[in-house]
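quick one before i forget lol
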Amino acid sequence: MNDKAPQATNIKDAQTLINQLWEITRVQVKTIDVLTQQVSSLTQQVDVLTLEVNTLKEKLSKNSNNVSAN
């Protein structure tokens, strides 16, 4: 990627740059939408797994208490 922004010298070049930027932006918005959906899905999975881990920890703690009491 070039460090300098492209410069249009006439209206036709300016329109070409606008069209290119529009397409890049359109693709990026689609990518952001997909990534947002993935983050949401993964967040839900983490929530479910966290609940499951906490439940298993509670069961383990209860079982450990029962074993040491015998």
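fyi The mean pLDDT is 92.
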